[in-house]
Amino acid sequence: MSDAFEIMKWPFVACLLLPGLLVYMGLHIVRREIIFVDLALAQVAALGICMAILLGYDAHDWQTMACSGGFTLAGAAILTLTRPGRKGGQVPQEALIGIVYVVAAAGSFLLLSRSPEGNEELRRTLVGEILLVQPGEVLRTFALFTAIGILHFVFRRQFWLLAFDPEKGREEGRRLWMWDFLFYALFGIVVTSFVRMGGVLLVFSYLIIPAVCANIFATTLRTRLAVGWGVATVSSVAGLYASYRLDLPTGAAIVCALGLALLLTSTVRIFHHK
User: What pTM did the predictor assign?
Assistant: First the structure.
C-alpha cells in the first residue's frame, strides 16, 4: 500500500492542483465556440517539443520548454489575426484552427520520423507521462498557473467582454485584438506547461469536458466553475485509481473517466427534463 502511495502521490497532486485553471479557460473556449483551439495549440506545443527533441534536448530541459513556448506564441498570433470580425475575413476561424492542428500534427510526425525513438516520443506527446511527473515540475507549474490565474482575475472584465459581449467592448473603444492575443498567449503558456506532463489528449479533455458538463447544469460563472472543478477532480481520482488497479496508461484512463462523466451528466440531464 505504501508503494502505491509513493507511485501515485504526485500524479494525484498534479491532477488536483493543475486542472483548475484549465477548467476556467475551458469555459471561455466553450463560450466563444472555438472548441478545437485548445487541441490546435496543444498540438503546436507538442510540435515545439518534437523540434527540441530532434535538436538533441531532453523533454524536460528548459530549452524544450522555450522551443515549445515559442511555437505556441506563434500559433497564438495566427489565431489572433484570423479571429472573427477582422476586416476581410471570409474563412471561418474553425477551419483555420483545423488547418493549424493538422499541419502541426503532420509536422510532429515528420520530425519524429528522424528520431530513433520516434514512435515512443509520439505516444508521449499524445497521452503524456503524468505517472512520472516530478514534485518540482508540479510545484513550478502550479506557481505559473497561479500567476496566470491572478492576471485573469485582474483583467477579468476585459476577458469576459471578449467572450460574452464583444460588441459592447467595441462600443467602449477597447482594443479587442490586443486582449485576444493576450488571452491566446496566456492560454498557450498553460497548454505548453501541461502538455509535457499530460499530453495533447488530456489537455483537451480537461479544458472541454468539465466545461461542457458545467454548461449542462449551471448558468452562473461560480456554479459552472464549481461543477467543472468537481467533474475534473472526481474523474481524475477515478482515472488514477483505474490506472493503478488495472495497470492502464494513466493519461488515457483519466480521459476515458472524463468522457464517462460527460455521458453520465448528459443522461442525468435528459431524465431530469423528462
Answer: 0.81
